Amino acid sequence: MGECIFCKIVAGELSSFKVYEDDETFAFLDIRPVNPGHTLVVPKHHSVNIFDVGAEDWTAVIKVVRSLSAVIERATEADGININMNNREHAGQVVDHLHVHIIPRFKGDGFKLWHQTPYKEGEAVKVQKKIKAQLS
């Protein structure tokens, strides 16, 4: 993936503020953080999103996300942590290389969560049935 910015970061062709690296993953500070310490964890092998990542790469990424979350929370003295992943353009994915955000949160930081809307009468059952039908 010659034009992928995250592949270039992993390969050392572009600089980053690396916070962690192992054989399968690479983690670095987001250059436009929600809060200081906002970190991205990526697999070293290119995959676009959750829909095409291999099971081994996904397992490696999520293990690092779990362990780094505690480290980042302590290091930044955060009040909490958000874990976020956007998949595809209309879900907010900007770089087409799988990445998981670890976002330190602070009381009163102003970062808002998504809006929530209750289901209309009967809608939850319909959605539940559609999801279950896709499992077969």
Provide an overview of this structure.
- The chain has 136 residues and is of the alpha+beta class.
- It has a single domain, classed as 2-Layer Sandwich (HIT family, subunit A).
- 31% of the residues lie in helices and 18% in strands.
- The protein is built from three helices and five strands.
- A five-stranded antiparallel β-sheet has the order 1-2-3-5-4, covered by helices on one side.
Primary descriptors:
136 residues; alpha+beta; HIT family, subunit A; globular
Query: What order do the SSEs take from the amino end to the carboxyl end, as H and E?
Result: HEEEHEEH
**Uncertain stretches:** none
* Structural class designation: alpha+beta
**Terminal-residue CA separation:** 34 Å
Largest sheet: 5 strands, antiparallel
CATH-wise, what's the superfamily? HIT-like
Tell me the CATH architecture: 2-Layer Sandwich
Radius of gyration: 17 Å
Q: So what's the overall shape?
A: globular
